[in-house]
Design brief:
Blueprint (H helix, E strand, L loop, with lengths): L4 E4 L5 H14 L12 H13 L3 E5 L5 E9 L9 E8 L8 H15 L4 E7 L3 H9 L3 E12 L2 E11 L10
Parallel strand pairs: 4-5
Antiparallel strand pairs: 1-2, 2-3, 3-4, 5-7, 6-7
């Protein structure tokens, strides 16, 4: 996909990110939320990302349209997990199947390396074949499944955990 700019997102992208998230909430099992989020939720979401120094990157068309975004945040809130982050990637429905998720993920992986993280974790609905295939193609390995982890659309949902171990940080430390 030519002329796609991958760049850090900011508050001006909040409405587009919200729209992409809400579409996923109401139409898919990519998020196990039931109710679309309000715009006020984006302010808090961006603030948490800023406080944790977690990037939010987007794929922008030449006209500035946000076609998709990716980010990561804490995997678990215990100090020993400080080198592990859980990521997410979403593409607006009209731009899917054009390689944007791959570009976003590749950029996210490079950012995680630059920040000294060691493990990226993807928590993927077990029926999301496209996301599973993407992660496998990017050298993520399946490291577990939780059956009946969620309930949405009147059925039980399983989640698969995929991980990518990075060669960073060079000198990890306790504490």
């Amino acid at each position: 996909m030519p002329n796609v700019k991958i760049a850090l997102c900011d508050d001006r992208h909040a409405p587009a990110i919200l729209s992409i998230l809400n579409e996923a909430i109401v139409t898919s099992t990519a998020l196990y939320d039931y109710v679309p989020r309000q715009s006020s939720a984006m302010t808090e979401w961006f603030e948490k990302k800023r406080r944790g120094n977690y990037p939010v990157i987007g794929a922008e068309a030449p006209d500035g349209t946000l076609m998709g975004f990716a980010s990561y945040g804490p995997f678990r809130n215990f100090p020993g997990y400080k080198y592990t982050v859980e990521h997410s990637v979403y593409v607006e429905k009209s731009f899917r199947r054009q390689g944007l998720a791959r570009k976003l993920m590749m950029s996210l992986i490079e950012l995680a390396k630059a920040q000294g993280y060691h493990t990226l974790i993807g928590v993927i609905d077990s029926s999301n074949e496209a996301s599973i295939r993407l992660h496998q193609e990017l050298a993520f390995t399946r490291c577990g499944r939780i059956v009946h982890a969620g309930f949405k659309f009147n059925r039980w949902l399983d989640v698969d955990f995929y991980q990518l171990v990075l060669p960073t940080p060079e000198h990890p430390v306790d504490g």
